[in-house]
Write a structure and sequence with these properties.
Layout lengths: L16 E4 L5 H12 L7 H6 L9 E5 L2 E15 L2 E13 L11 H15 L4 E4 L3 H11 L2 E5 L2 E4 L13 E5 L8 H8 L5 E2 L3 H9 L7 E7 L4 E10 L2 E9 L6 H12 L7 E5 L5 H8 L4 E2 L5 E6 L6 H5 L12
Parallel strand pairs: 4-5, 12-13
Antiparallel strand pairs: 1-2, 2-3, 3-4, 3-9, 5-15, 6-15, 7-13, 7-14, 8-10, 10-11, 11-12
Length: about 325
């Protein structure tokens, strides 16, 4: 029988061969990213994202004559929610060099994408998600059968509009502390909720917010009297915008949310920030409270949540209920 496509090495002068990403590819990917995007993704970012992450997913390169012509990254997570624990993956760092930019149905881009989708589907991932802008969304729908779930929910507030209050009784704040055993009850509660979300275990959030090279997040955790986490916020400054890259609370209906936002306003908002921004599903309870009682208004975005089925038995209804944040997109 014919060898699997990923097992075949490319011959000189022929179409690029596809193979799994290897750690020794990271320097070449940094160079390819400069060609594709105009600015190189730092070399330290690649091992953090694809070698040091708590989970693994198959990512592929296109190679010809020993040179990398394209890459399709699969950023690994786990889909968690109401008894579900499945491999999860976001499409990131999708790029081709000048020699391989053929976006037709037989192009390197589409070959890479379909091979990554097949490999991750075989690994158990039900769907892949991403947050493309309008131009890339149309390409994904036309060439790769992506489906738009919704225009990303975007809410904004001036820092002065955030709650300013004393903490509820038996609550305290920890800023910059590691995620550890105190985080476990919160992660368990988040993972038990209806719908799906990316893994929020201590290992995931510790890696995401405290081990990323060259990127600083200000993390505020809200703890109860026994030191158990009731919620956390991760803040990153982007010019005048302070992004709540992640915002999670155990009880979305109670006082934990305004307590956490008050702690963010008091301790974590960088000097000079004029806007606080958050990304989250438009119809969720968190969005309704932020917009209804906590000072946030509608923001602007050109990005959508899109998903693509990887397995015939995948439930896209669950994908449409994906509880996303900025942190589920690698650029933030």
């Amino acid at each position: 029988p014919d060898a699997p496509p990923l097992a075949a090495a490319p011959e000189a002068g022929m179409e690029p061969g596809l193979r799994l990403l290897r750690p020794e590819d990271f320097p070449a990917l940094a160079a390819l990213s400069k060609e594709a995007f105009g600015a190189a993704i730092p070399e330290a970012e690649w091992p953090w994202k694809y070698a040091d992450a708590p989970f693994r997913a198959p990512s592929l390169v296109a190679e010809r004559d020993g040179s990398l012509l394209g890459f399709f990254g699969a950023w690994a997570t786990r889909y968690r929610g109401a008894g579900v624990d499945l491999p999860g993956v976001a499409a990131v760092d999708v790029m081709t060099g000048r020699a391989a930019r053929a976006l037709g149905r037989a192009g390197v881009f589409r070959r890479l994408a379909l091979a990554v989708f097949e490999a991750n589907g075989e690994a158990g991932a039900p769907f892949v998600f991403g947050f493309p802008n309008d131009r890339h969304r149309v390409t994904g729908e036309r060439l790769l059968d992506y489906v738009e779930v919704e225009r990303c929910g975007a809410l904004e507030a001036a820092p002065s509009r955030l709650p300013s209050r004393r903490l509820a009784p038996l609550r305290r704040v920890a800023r910059g502390a590691p995620f550890g055993r105190a985080h476990a009850p919160l992660a368990e509660a988040l993972h038990a909720r209806p719908g799906l979300r990316a893994d929020r275990s201590a290992a995931s959030v510790e890696w995401r917010f405290r081990r990323r090279p060259g990127v600083a997040y200000d993390v505020v955790q809200l703890l109860d009297l026994l030191g158990r986490s009731r919620g956390y916020a991760a803040v990153r400054l982007d010019g005048p915008v302070a992004r709540l890259v992640d915002l999670q609370v155990r009880d979305e209906e109670g006082p934990d949310l305004p307590d956490l936002l008050s702690a963010v306003a008091a301790t974590a908002l960088p000097a000079g920030a004029s806007v606080v921004s958050v990304r989250l599903p438009r119809t969720g309870l968190l969005a309704r409270r932020l917009a209804g009682e906590l000072g946030f208004g509608e923001g602007t975005t050109d990005c959508s949540l899109t998903v693509r089925r990887l397995r015939d038995d995948a439930d896209l209804g669950a994908a449409r209920a994906f509880d996303y944040r900025f942190s589920d997109h690698d650029v933030f």
